[in-house]
Amino acid sequence: MNNKTRTAWLFLAPMLIVLLLVALWPLGRTIWFSFTDANINNLDAAKFIGFENYFGEYGLFANPNYTDGFWSSDWGTAIVNTLKFSVVSVTIETLMGLGVAMLLNQEFKGRAWVRAAVLVPWAIPTIVSAKMWGWMLHDQFGVINQWLVDWGLLAEKLAWTADPDFALWTVVAVDVWKTTPFMALLILAALQTLPKDCYEAAKVDGVHPLRVFWKVTLPLIKPALMVAVIFRLLDALRVFDLIYVLTSNNNSTISMSGFVRREMVDNGYMGYGSAASTALFLIIGLCTVAYIKLGRMKMAED
Amino acid sequence: MKFKLKTIALAALAPLALASAQAATITISCGSVGQDFEFCKKTTAEWAAKTGNEVKLFTIPNSTTDILALFRQMFAAKSTDLDVINVDVVWPGVIKDHLIDLKPYSKGAEKSHFPAIVANNTVDGKLLAMPWFTDAGLLFYRKDLVEKYGAKAPTTWEELAATAKKIQDGERAAGNKDFQGFVFQAKAYEGLTCDAVEWIHSYKGGNIVNDKGEITINNPGAVKALKTAASWIGTIAPQGVLNYAEEEARGVFQNGNAAFMRNWPYAWSLGNGKDSKIAGKIGVSALPKGGADGQNAATLGGWQLAVSKYSKNPEAAASLVMYMTSPEVQKERAIKGSYNPTIASLYQDKDVLAANPFFGSLYNVFTSAVPRPATATGLKYPEVSAAFWNATSDVLSGKASAEDSLKKLEGKLKQIKRNAW
């Protein structure tokens, strides 16, 4: 090892040690716990049980006690809920974020103010905004029900967060409100780096603005868009706080993270919960890989 | 430089450390429902003034499910942050390994409390918590409205549904569009377990798991009970009850927007408070029977105080517990906050009865309240309860029929039980 490399390692060491402590150690411990029968009541008494938590008689997958099939078990429902939530919310957020970014990219008076204002929902902590929406959506005192009834759009007040038919979509709506600014911000950053000459050339040639958007803008911001969507997707797949605060958190809306928390903390099954947590980690990884692969294929076609 | 700073800091802290050796600082968690927090602040301050110790209040969540989750995490980390904790009546079996035995400190004081509660708090011969107040589910109703519509306080759930419908229709026609017949706790949490145990017990459907640990939930009485409760949603109760806990239900009732409410006794003094729209108009009775040949049933609730095993000042903490559960404090809390005492003689006390007339007339309800199956299921109780409230929630929201849901629940409980509770 030459001197330069040694110095480089020396400089890297603090960061590596910190990373090891705060990221790898908890991750490793969770994975270790997932192979044990640890209970929160007494962690020291944990015994190694191999893959029992995953594929055993009472495990996450291939559990013979799932009489109605895997997808109607609590864990299956949690996976379905999370995927539904993620796909729908990220799609809407991307489309709306793109729209908002295109608007904010125009020159108009007071643009700086509007840009700042758009970011407000993103700046509010999720717990606070979830509580706020919880009150606004309250079935008796909520302002949203009041407006909808006053304007004649609804015949009677709806229980947005309690009715299992609406609860998950209410969560999606609140998430869209909260995270569209984030998408808009990332896309706006990409839009501002675009070279002006392409647009001037298009203008000279008299190309239709829609065509400019499809053929020039979209391909140019695609890499940034992909990154933004990945960020959001990772975030959405581990959704917890919004669902936990806003809904009554029963089986009809529980997310994978909610399931992990319930098993680990409420029920005390550290081991089983860790297994679910590890599975969640793998599922998120799988989704990301699939998304990147898909994106590459598409890009190659272009 | 760094070294110097440290010395200065140590020098500055030294007097503090000395002071804390004499007077302990005790951190207590006492609850955040209704007037819990104000009372806690007042009684702990009294104790602090008497003993020269200091008390810090620890704010906990509103829902008992969340509180237990928080405590279990703190216990798992052997946290010394909390000395005195409030213990729900169903928890002693779950957190028994993390509490100290209070017998050396109580000096027999527990003998004046209700024996059933003391037995509930005693695990393996150790008195893990002192009874603080007891609770039982009650039916609160609007005396004025029941009279106005020529009805009586209902004795069966069927009567309640009919009366509630009549009042609701009448009040809505009279212009109060948001008026509801009946509100209760149907959010998917421990409170729903309490409510549903009452329904099922009143239809003689047992207690989820019997004393021997056998799973008894899938029976015709339970099916009938859940069907009856599901029929209320959208007719006499708003769809929103599916997300109501105690305080949401009280909010609707206390604003004059409901004819009936199922709640704990604490709602009495708040409902008759200065800022209540219905002060003086509230009647209280036992919860209705399930049909003419059913029985009255009220779920046993209530809270205890205990000392954490990881406390650094167990002696001072135990002294605070003994003060807060003493007859004097219980009497004051009964008069000003309608918290049910756990000491039988206080139910004959004139001042207590003057403030809460129903303590006398419903004495039987409080002493014969139905416990949830926490003793039989031990460490697995939280999971059993969660499975039960989820199954109930599915029926109430119309996602599943009572028959299917209870059958599925039976399977799930077997899975939770595995070989033994």
How large, in whole angstroms, is the Cα Rg of chain A?
A: 24 Å
Content of β-strand of chain B: 5-15%
Mean pLDDT score of chain B: 91
Shape assignment of chain A? globular
Task: Record keyword descriptors for this entry.
heterodimer, A: 302 residues, mainly alpha, MetI-like fold, B: 421 residues, alpha+beta, D-Maltodextrin-Binding Protein, domain 2, 2 domains, 20 helices, globular
Map the helices and strands.
The complex is a heterodimer of chains A (302) and B (421).
Chain A: H1 3-33, H2 52-55, H3 74-104, H4 111-118, H5 120-123, H6 126-136, H7 143-150, H8 164-192, H9 196-205, H10 209-237, H11 241-246, H12 256-266, H13 270-301
Chain B: H1 2-22, E1 25-29, H2 36-51, E2 54-58, H3 64-76, E3 84-88, H4 92-95, H5 103-106, H6 115-121, E4 122-123, E5 126-127, E6 130-136, E7 138-142, H7 143-148, H8 157-173, E8 180-183, H9 190-202, H10 220-232, H11 246-254, E9 258-263, H12 266-271, E10 282-285, E11 300-307, H13 314-324, H14 327-337, H15 350-355, H16 357-361, H17 363-367, H18 374-377, H19 381-396, H20 402-417
Parallel strand pairs in B: 1-2, 8-9
Antiparallel strand pairs in B: 3-11, 4-5, 6-11, 7-9, 7-10
Helix pairs in contact in B: 9-10, 9-19, 19-20
